[in-house]
Amino acid sequence: MEDDINQDELTKSIVNALDLVVYAKGSSDLKISFMNKKGLDMLGLTHDEVVGKSDYDLFPRNKAKSIRNLDREVLESKKPSLVFEERNAGDGHKSYKVSRFPIELSNGENFLLGSTQDITEFKIVENELKHALSFSECLFESSPDGILVINHMTRNIAKVNSAFFKMWGISVKLIDSNDDVLLSAAVGSLKEPEAFIKLVEELYDKPTILSNDILELKDGRYFYRTSFPLIEEGKPTARIWHFQDVTELKQAQLDSKKAEVAKSQFLANMSHEIRTPMNGIIGLIDTLRSMDITNEMMEMLDTINISSETLLNTLNDILDFSKNESGNLKLESNSFSIKHLINECYQLFESSAVGRNNSLDVSIADDLPSHFIGDKHRIKQVLTNYLTNAIKFTNNGKIKIGAELLSTTSDHCFLSLWVSDTGIGIAEKYHPELYSAFIQADASTTRVYGGSGLGLSICAQLAELMGGEIFFESKENEGSKFYLKIHLKKSQAIEINNGMDYPSRLEVVKNQQSRHFLIVEDNLINQKVMALILRRLDFTCDIACNGQEAIDRITVVGPGYYSIIFMDMQMPVMDGIEATKRIKQKYGFDSPSIIAVTANAYGSDKECCLAAGMCDFLSKPVKKSTLQEIIQRYAI
To answer: How far is CA 291 from CA 19, 99, 270, 530, in A?
Structure first.
């Protein structure tokens, strides 16, 4: 008996603890025989005020009648009932789930068991979810991009928007088909259908892979395709395909590339047209300076030479800026000596510095390794720009170029290369824009000192390209110091002194038999200048006006007659590249050394020449010293 009482108490406690209204009614009079605490609290009544009462005692007549009709219906049908009700209460709008169950006890007595659950919060979440789904569905369907969702297991279409069918020109009737049918309908539009079919199969074999690319269609359109898996509980359940029409963007890219090619071609042509006459001017200046002339004539030549070099430097700056802007500026990687490089800079600028009553000194740290691997010419370009500016903006002062070791590892060094001066300096307000293209610290200095304003901008680009940085320190009327900090790999090269100086090596070339050169050049002035330089070096030379003439000459005299062929690239009848290929193909290792001599200044031109079989590349204008170096390198 005690166990039964305890069991009843336990059941009541459980029912009273439930977060929903639970009640029981007699089947005959439908009066309430039990209501749990949640129900009493909702009504605001006590147990005695509820038990034994009917719905007419507790609710307005119309509501009580409605409740009683629902109760009778459940008892008569002996089937449970579930209804959802919306009620306005004092604390706002409420949603309820109302359940009714017919109950028959073992003694044959019948009851109606009911429950009412407040589902307002669930309803709010449900409405929000419906809204979110509706919004997502709206976005999905209104998207201008084609979206396709394929079930991973069945490979049937799980979801697809109308934009997909429109983009691919596929009938909406295929919406209930599988991906194979869709694939067959779509690939006919592609320019390379086999590659796409192969890709689709690969993605289904590797269901977790994300993939994207550009698809080109036969009608000229381009789609950016993205495909990624839908993962649920760690397993792929579907694959989503997204197609975006990027035809306009792609066309813009193609137009941009065409414009870039046209720009590069224009610059190459301009370079060729300017460098060709410049080759004649500088070549003749170089030759005249070696003759016995008066001091007055020498001063005139110096003036012409400075003007020519200024024009050439401006041209080089414009080309370098353009090449770097278009990503065509390439770096070389060779072994070189920093000490030699700085000494070359010193020798190059010593007379210019002295000419403006400046001293030029060198400061190289003792702990600097002998050789490094990098682009010597680009590093030299930065330093020569620094030196040019230092000399330009300094009178009766001191200029110094130096190098020091900042840190080192087993195979790399971190270096600081710098140029300092005691010139006019730079006002602090001009510091932020000093590296901007076409900008000088003060616009008036352009008129006073000259310059394009490109130099430091190019230096900054070169430093970044080499993985380094440039910066400066400067005070107005006190001077400036410009730095290039760069990481360079150590080289195992060692300095070799074979006891033979440069002129003596050239004498070896002169004294050897059969040291004849062939100049292949279509420009009359350049023919004369190159021939004049070679003859003043006591060498003999022949001239061919195009590649075909060069081949004809070699056919007559044999490939061993000429030690070096100086080959222009752009010529009528047959260009230098084609002529070189034919000579190499015909004579192989017996071919003379072929050196490109061209007004084209792009790195791709050099690569093209070397690929054709040429040994080296000279950019016009060619100086006597450069020509001597080439001869002693390839004619011995």
So the answer is: 113, 118, 32, 16
Q: Which residues contact 589 (CB under 8 A, 6 or more apart)?
A: none
| DSSP-derived pairing of the beta strands 359-364 and 334-336 | unpaired
Phi (first) and psi of residue 408, to 5 degrees: -150, 150
DSSP per residue, 34-90? EE-HHHHHHHT--HHHHTT--HHHHS-HHHHHHHHHHHHHHHHHT--EEEEEEEEET
The closest of 328, 209, 356 to 263, measured between CA atoms, is 328
How is residue 178 annotated by DSSP?
B
User: pLDDT digit string (tens) for 394-429?
Assistant: 999 999 999 999 999 988 999 999 999 999 998 888
Report how far Cα 1 is from the mean position of its chain's Cα atoms: 85
What is the token pair recorded at 284? 């003749």
Q: What are phi and psi of 508, to 5 degrees?
A: -60, -40
Residue 564 token pair: 């070096």
Whole-number Å distance between alpha carbons of 636 and 633: 7
- Would you list the DSSP string of 401-462? EEEEEEEE-SSEEEEEEEEEE-SS---GGGGGGTTSTT--SSHHHHHHH---S-HHHHHHHH
Segment (H or E) for 288: helix 247-289
Mark out the alpha helices in 113-224 (DSSP H runs). 120-142, 162-168, 179-187, 193-205
Residue found by looking up tokens 């200046």 in the block: 285
The tens digit of pLDDT for each residue in 348-397 reads 788 888 888 999 999 999 999 989 999 888 898 889 889 988 998 999 99
CA dist 202 → 196, 209, 214, 409 (Å): 10, 9, 17, 46
Sheet with 235-245, edge to edge strand ranges: 157-160, 146-151, 235-245, 222-232, 211-216
Which DSSP symbol is given to 246?
A: -
**Beta carbons of 549 and 520 less than 8 angstroms apart:** yes
Report the C-alpha gap between 129 and 86 in whole angstroms: 19
User: Cα dist. 266→141, 319, 322, 526 in Å?
Assistant: 49, 11, 11, 22
Tokens 């222009």 -> residue: 568
Pairing of strands 146-151, 235-245: antiparallel
Q: Which of 631, 552, 564, 622 is nearest to 591 (CA)?
A: 564
CA gap 460, 484 in Å, rounded: 9
110-125 pLDDT tens trace: 889 999 888 888 888 8
